[in-house]
Amino acid sequence: MAFDIDMIKGVYASMGERVEKARELVGKPLTLSEKILYSHLWDGKPEKAFVRGKDYVDFAPDRIACQDATAQMALLQFMQAGKDKVAVPTTVHCDHLIQAKDGAAADLKHANETSKEVFDFLGSVSNKYGIGFWKPGAGIIHQVVLENYAFPGGMMIGTDSHTVNAGGLGMVAIGVGGADAVDVMAGMAWELKFPKLIGVKLTGKLSGWTAPKDVILKVAEILTVKGGTGAIVEYFGPGATSMSCTGKGTICNMGAEIGATTSTFGYDESMERYLRATDREDVADEANKVKEHLTADPEVYANPEQYFDQVIEINLSELKPLLNGPFTPDLATEVGTMTDKATENGWPLAVEWGLIGSCTNSSYEDLSRASSIAQQALDKKLKTKAEFGINPGSEQVRYTTERDGILEIFEKLDAKIFTNACGPCIGQWGRYEDPKNAPKNSIVHSFNRNFAKRADGNPNTHAFVASPEMTAAIAIAGRLDFNPLTDTLINEDGEEVMLDEPTGWELPPKGFEVKENGYEDPLEDGSGVEVKVASDSERLQLLEPFVPIKASDLQGMKLLIKAFGKCTTDHISMAGPWLRFRGHLDNIANNTLIGAVNAFNQKTNFVKNQLTGEYGGVPDTQREYKKKGIMTVVVGDHNYGEGSSREHAAMQPRHLGVAVVIVKSFARIHETNLKKQGMLALTFANEDDYDLIQEDDTFNIVDAAEFAPDKPLTLEVVHADGSKDTIITNHSYNDAQIKWFNEGSALNLIKKQNA
Ligand code: F3S
């Protein structure tokens, strides 16, 4: 189930016919994105043209990738599905749970000790169910996927938002929640709203200090962090084909920072070079045979305005290197114009760290170009002002860059070479003992996200995003407003010196090499593998199937919380320190709704227990109701459950005994997640009825036994004084989803069907 050339041949074999049919149905030439989408329909050959931004469509992805933090709950759920093997090639990558502190060897040892049970669990589940397993230290999920699995024209989903990185090799690759991944692992379709399409035409050519990173930093400035929402961004033009494959990966990777569904590029020679360099001659040969389907029809790129919903043009020859930040990746400043801006805004000009790596910028090309700057610091006798940290993207990149003397250059500058893992990119950075009280400072990195506290937990760290080569230059100078194109530095001999433009190799001149890539193939027959989870583990807990909620349970329900205003998946299931419990439903349930604001007192995590009249935390109060066998209702405002697709936000309330969530409107993915977990997700027919809900209310769904598609449900609200209101609630359950409810969850139904 690792790399599968037959699967790729199968995709290509049917692509021509499907693309032709789609072209006929759509009635005009097709973009690359449309070709990939229409050739991955769940039902096979297209039957109708879909409306972009409107129609929900079932797809059949070719691959799934999961990282260690999200894979825990995904695999715990998959184990409930009653399947012997995953239905689609799947890999698990251990990269998020490794802290960067003392350097690769010590940090990896520490992670293997502190997260041993999680890694062992992921390894054994992978072995049992036919999933490829990449051990801690093997690399960062998206770099490993690009090197081993991504292929032009393919469709992939992954339980990580930067799954989109694989667009650099011409895929449509999309980040999803664990519940979606489980559906596909179990052999079901994956649903997505047919995306809108944004075309980005790249003219000119990158040169000098400007890098692929600057392209996406510019796009982020233009579109902002929301501008790509619901859309696929398709890059094309001479500027696109002149860039390396891994450079394209960087651009697609940060598509997540503009909210895009994904980003992609048409198949070209850079992709062919990359495939051949990474030992996939056969994929390149197969891709070459169907080249015309792996890029848009020629008319599209000639007249993009006619085929995309929005078109942006960027001339790479005029693009300037950028520094984006702090605190948001779309706040762009041209290198060389920082002094005034930083001073006005109080951003510290002194830079304390330069970090190079993450899934965004950790390719051989990235490290070689950054090292050409580092080498100049040695040659020109410059003392680096900031500290350097390097995270190679994979063991293959690490091994090859070590062999080629690239890492040694950084080491001579006293750089810390961290594990091939996420590290500081996800806050796994042992920079401070007490980050909350750490001083104000600036850092520069080549990662993708720079929200407050993201890298080191310090709210006063101002993180700026730049290309690896610019990160190296600024770290050497130790100043945010250093412009290597014009500024000089004083060396140890007191001489003024300048840094020359970066140079580097797109691909290693002597080829990639690796001794132990950290991959473990699963057993052909894993039926004998025992998955061990200690009963007293605080990190992992095997799931019990949810018991179906009966019509009688929907009588006499108590109000748990009436949430006021914004209630995102973060308010429902917080991240941060709770990340360590992602594989233990009962423990992570102790954060359920603790971020939601109680509409009756405007406080968080402070609700009335109707049984005692006392106030307490939401999870504790809910557990009291559960003990008494009383189900509860959560009431919410508009767009309830927006944010991430994390299924914990639905599983936790379900686990604790919440039966119904009634809101003015739902974020769609969360609504589906509630349905999948066998709960009732309802909306007020008249949203002003939200105001009728009082703190001591008891609820009866009077027609619960008649739950059917398109039939509203009637909610009787009994107030403390005995008065009643009758509220009509709507729902969007179809027949299949009502079966999920009746069975207790979608997984229970899958299991029953597989029995
Ligand atoms: Fe890891 Fe950061 Fe990428 S957390 S997957 S390196 S975005």
TrEMBL record:
InterPro entries: Acnase/IPM_dHydase_lsu_aba_1/3, Acoase/IPM_deHydtase_lsu_aba, Aconitase/3IPM_dehydase_swvl, Aconitase/IPM_isomerase, Aconitase_4Fe-4S_BS, Aconitase_4Fe-4S_dom, Aconitase_dom2, Aconitase_mito-like. It is an enzyme of class 4 (lyase). GO terms for biological process: tricarboxylic acid cycle. SUPFAM superfamilies: Aconitase iron-sulfur domain (SSF53732), LeuD/IlvD-like (SSF52016). Residues 557-687 form the Aconitase A/isopropylmalate dehydratase small subunit swivel domain. GO terms for cellular component: cytosol. Keywords: Iron, Iron-sulfur, Lyase, Metal-binding, Transit peptide, Tricarboxylic acid cycle. The keyword Oxidoreductase does not apply. Its EC number is 4.2.1.3. Residues 34-478 form the Aconitase/3-isopropylmalate dehydratase large subunit alpha/beta/alpha domain. Pathway: Carbohydrate metabolism; tricarboxylic acid cycle; isocitrate from oxaloacetate: step 2/2. GO terms for molecular function: 4 iron, 4 sulfur cluster binding; aconitate hydratase activity; metal ion binding. The keyword Lyase applies. It catalyses: citrate = D-threo-isocitrate. Its cofactor is [4Fe-4S] cluster. NCBIfam families: aconitase_mito, PRK07229.1. Belongs to the aconitase/IPM isomerase family. This is Aconitate hydratase A. It comes from Flagellimonas lutimaris.
